[in-house]
Amino acid sequence: MQTEGIQRITLGSRLVRMARGETVFHNGDISDGFYIVVHGQIKLAFTSHQGMEKVVQLFEPGSSFGEATMFLEKPYLLSSQALVDSVLLHVGKAAVFNEIERNPEFARRMLAGLSMRLHTLVRDVEAYSLHSCTQRVIGYLLRKEQEHCLEKNSLHFQFPANKMTIASLLNISPETFSRILHDLSADGLIRMEGKCVTILDIERLRAY
Predict the structure, then answer these.
(1) 33, 66 in Cβ contact below 8 A?
(2) Crossing angle for the helix pair 104-130 and 133-142, nearest 10 degrees?
(3) Backbone angles phi, psi at 87, to 5 degrees
(4) Which one of 65, 155, 166, 182 has the lowest number of neighbouring Cβ atoms within 10 Å?
């Protein structure tokens, strides 16, 4: 993206600071742009009439959310909340639409980002529909495989949220999630220390 384009987008953007637990937007709010996570962590979720929450996605620094609703020019279908103290960059709708008309490359990048998000959602729906609870948990753990390995065939990382949130993301109960982690630990595949996870043998875990 050219410097002039970045400057135009910047003029239509503003920083938003969110305290832990603060809502970015509610279901039914009107969208006037999209967000980029600068610092912190954001969850996207919906709540049933019975008050049960289903986490749809988690967003960490560098990721964006809210683009699809902005383009549809319809109210949000989900709610968004800061899981920790966070800093967001709100990019205004007018700035985005003006830049799309000016810059085809910017438009292609926006489409690529939306396409990747759709691909991720389809993959998640496939997992919820066709995979067992254990397979979903192992699949989630193995997504971290591209991160830094401490030792050959092992991997160490920290859960990005509490177990209840991750369980909701995987569409399983917190009790089932904890039981599966306990079973994997008992079988010598992972080691748990609070929110820190060590995959002791990636190949064995993949074949489990």
Answers:
(1) yes
(2) 140
(3) -125, 125
(4) 182
